[in-house]
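Protocol step 4 of 6: record predicted structures for both targets in the notebook before any analysis. Target 1:
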Amino acid sequence: MFGEDDIVKGHKQRADIIFNIIVFCFGLIVIRLWYLQIYKGDLFYKYSVQNRLRKEIVNAPRGLIFSRNNELLVHNALRFDAAVVPQYLTKKDETFKKLSSILEMEQDEIKKILKNNSNQASYRPVVIKKNISGREVAIIETESSSMPGVRVETFISREYRDKEIGAHLLGYISEISQAQLPKYKKRDGIDYNLGDFIGQSGVEEMFDQSLRGEDGYQFMEVDARGRMKRVIQSNNLFQGIENKPARPGNNIRLTIDRDMQIQAFNSLEDKVGSVVAIDVESGEILTMVSRPSFEPGRFSRGISSDYWASLVNDPNRPLIDRTIQEHYMPGSTFKPFVAIAALEEGLIKPDQKIMCPPTFKLGRRVFHDWKKNGHGMTDVYKSLRESVDVYFYKIGTQLDIDTLGEYVSSFGLGKKTGILLPRETSGLVPTKEWKKKRFGEEWQLGETLSCVIGQSYNLSTPLQLAISYAAIANGGKVYKPYIIKEVFSNNGSIIKKGRPEISMNAKVSDETLKHIRRGLYEVANVKGGTAWWYRGRGIHMAGKSGTSQVRSMSSKELFSKCKDMPYKDRHHGIFVAFAPYEKPRVAVAAVVEHGCSGSGAAAPVVRDVLTTYMKKYEPELFEKLSQMDKNAYLEMLRAEREKKEKKEEEVEDDE
């Protein structure tokens, strides 16, 4: 038929096109299958496996912290949190109702927590309540089948054995904040996430990298509701899936003595203040206590808003470490360094007597001694024993403030000690240049007279005072203080060891130190000394009391009873000492804010800490000195009784 060939030809062309299209599509399918099953087969196999698996972070146990005598100070404890995984959360109303009843929380509160965390991945668990009880854990595990998405998270919390005692030194850990994330990621090179815990103060902060270890992870097989079926180990079924065990952090042994810590804390009682004790021949910190304090364990368990508010709103600032972050005018504890400068410069001689009336006049200004009637003839020993202000006023008229500053600074005052603890303040030793730069004014002689009795611009931390008196005790060696005795791994291998390090040598001769030590010994061991009442008792301490004024006083206020003043106007009490005098082992500094006097408020604290040290580390010497003190005391009573009887006989003869 006409045109059939053309029709057949047309159909054939269309058939060829359709065939080619079919072949092309089939080819695409084959290529796609090859891509998915062969080229990307391993990857998509892994994806398919991961649909059945959940990757769980295994927190590394944080390193333990011990005292110098291997007593456990900080350890870890298992904590349980109630959490919800939004990805598997179904039957919301029923689940929220049950969970609310179990945890004793309002449903709206649970919903609010989930809403606040809605920006994170849905597979990540959201903690609803921290540190739940064993009863709550048991009920959640029992009811898990009817509450899809609800689970119990385990967490290792930080526990501090002695709670508030030494909290500032040990520090605390808490969750990293949003503001801290970029800063610490850059600093440490670690990909921190919200919810991670880091050291925020004290030893926990400074040695965080060593203590924290390295988190691991493990894979768990889960059902369609997200409930765990089993932990997956590497095998032929789940190829390429490898669990990573957590690496525990390193442990730290401190130089701190726990018994001395407890004694210092208890001796401060309800006072506001601090105590530092240091080994005079090594720089090891034996005691470091600040009060009021806080409970560091509360931070790792999730601090409540009420407790946090009580800390930040407390006028006594319990979060401040007063041993290194607070500085005070040293008061009369500064006088030994003035005497050192005067002796070294040849301005006085040890046995040279100077008349010391109740006042000293410079121009039209009158400087008062603390004693209304004055002290009469005074040498360097009496000036320290009875803390004679006028003696030092007279020295101050001859002693250049910059020269004094050189001597004082050489003992470690007015500069950071370099201790490995955060936020240490430097204190201040004033100079002419400093005043010119700070106020734009020239130095005045009257300011020197205020400085030589430890007032005016002088500022020192308790740690600096302890170090400077340790230098007096050991012959002028200023040690860099350290708190880490050893850092060691869990298998016991030593990673780092603390060693004594002399940061400088004080500008002083052995002869001058001999006279200063004698004067300090008389403070606590010779009648009339400002700490005479705390003499003996087996420690033979040598030290100096100090009164640090918190504001300038008129002559009338100066002689009024401190305890009658408003609390905020009362002087701070300071006492620094070392013991035993014959061969010093330890130096202790104590500050009691608004304690009125060093001898009344701070000296008993120092005495108690020194006694604890001597009983523990020098028991034989302690017993020997105790017996000597007892015999000396009985001899003194006998001499006083004979003197009294002789006087009575003389009166009878006159009659």
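Target 2:
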Amino acid sequence: MQFTTNARYPIPGQMAPMVEQFDWKLTPLGPISDWPSPLFSTVRLVLRSPLPMVLLWGHDGVMIYNDAYSEFAGFRHPGLLGSKVREGWPEVSDFNDNVLRVCLAGGTLSYQDQELTLHRNGKPEQVWLNLDYSPVCDEAGQPAGVLACVVETTKRVKAERMLALESGRFREMFRQAPGFMAMLRSPEHIFEVVNDSYLQLVGHRSDLIGKPIRQALPEMEGQRYLELLDAVYRTGEPFRGEAMPVLLQRRVEGATEQMFVDFVYQPIRDGAGQVSGIFVEGYDVTQRVHAEAALRTSQERFRKALTISTVGVLFFEIGGRVTDANDAFLAMTGFTRADLEAGALRWDKMTPPEFMPASQKCIEELTTQGHSTPYEKEYVRKDGTRVWFLFAARMLNETEAVEFAIDISERRAAEDRQKLLARELNHRVKNLFAVASGMVSLSARNARSPQDMAASLQGRLNALARASDIIQPKSGAAEEDPERVATLEKLVWAIVRPYLEHGPPGSMSSITVSGPDVALGPNAITGLALFLHETATNAAKYGALSWVEGRLRVEWRSTGSAVHLTWIESEGPEVKGPPSVSGFGSVLAKRSIAGTLGGAVDYDWKPEGLRVDVILPMERLSY
């Protein structure tokens, strides 16, 4: 059996000779001479078809296809010929398995614009196909193969989707256009299409479509706009208006509001050249008109105000709104001129609640005396931070005043720092007296003689002095003496040594210090020493160090990224629980760990003694 020269009706094209010359003995089909009549007839049908067709024969779906299908197959041709369909198209093997399963059971399948990903040209390619599958029966009338007609629709699908996308884009562009747009038809100017900006312009009306403009916007009567529409429809001549005022009732039961618009009425003509509608397009320029008016007013105001760049100047209404300000004030508060023009600046909103009484007193002075006594208060900046100002204000007219502001934040911060340092110094002196008093009492209870007491007390006071020196290190000390570069062990001993009974470090069991070498930088020394000092002071006042039998264990370990330090007290007075009020020293201790060192501290008030767990980031200990 032949398909080309020896056949009665030879088949043109490249695939007929390729099928004849293929070594089919290597496939489950065997040589062509042994092919059953239905297979041979179907192959002739496939090879003659101008449509892309492929025959999948047998349960393995051995592939025989025509010229049109070879073009569809791309670089996979001619390797597909005689291959099993699962192996020929592995990326869609599940899909083809289902085709063989259904059609070899006698069923048919049809897909329209089926989306598949095929590797036809060496890379994944998204394609769309019309696919029709029918069973081919053998001589016994049983399904033995599947005839597939494959028509690629990728170009059409992409074109349709692109058209739909473009149409959708145009609709969205129309809807979201910043300018207002509307399409009116017929001499009655019936709304056909409107966009979001047009609805925003006219306010509460959302059911304009299908209504004549006189019915939809009755307040337009007597404002010339309807007459202009009639003239454009009648004459076919467009009309353009700039900054024209219009009164619109933008709320259901509200009064009309004056708006200003730039717009054009453009006539639309039908196929016969007759005007059939009007396209309305324009912009709401109300803010621009108001801004221009405000600018003229502002220029007049600023001629009356100081222009010194370091002094902030703001104009405000007694009710709260800041109507204008110079660049210096905006820079001080972090707002922009756009924020100002948008109405985002109000002195009452920028004033923290605790300063409202002073502000109200200023307003009272302004309205009664025409000027205010200079006063200091904070304003909340745009980013939420606060800035201190020294203010003085004067009335400009019955409802508006001008205020001059000087930034005094640095001065106030310096005063706050001085207060904090004074408070800390006071607390530090009290602690030193308390510790010294405890040392005297402890030494007196255990001294064998006055000389013994004096020696013991002198040693403790010297250790306390060394610890105090670590808490407040002298400038340049580390550079002058490398031995002063502290480790964690040295720092801990410097703090707790005053509470040892006697002897070298570690000789007594009352205090135990252990852990690996950890170097400390100057900032870490200050923060950690303050924490240890405060914790030891509290232990000497209320905890294990306040009793002769008391025990303290300080130990730490390193995980590479952090140091875990544990302070454990025992054998001291019974702990009743955490204090009801945290003292200034406790607050400073916690701030030293969390603020200075970026760590965390946890207190566990066990009945047998306080346990404190501290986590210190390793990278912060070197600062």
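Step 5 preliminary note on target 2. The two ends are 93 Å apart (CA to CA). The domain at 432-621 is CATH 3.30.565.10 (Heat Shock Protein 90).
Proceed to step 6 after PI sign-off.
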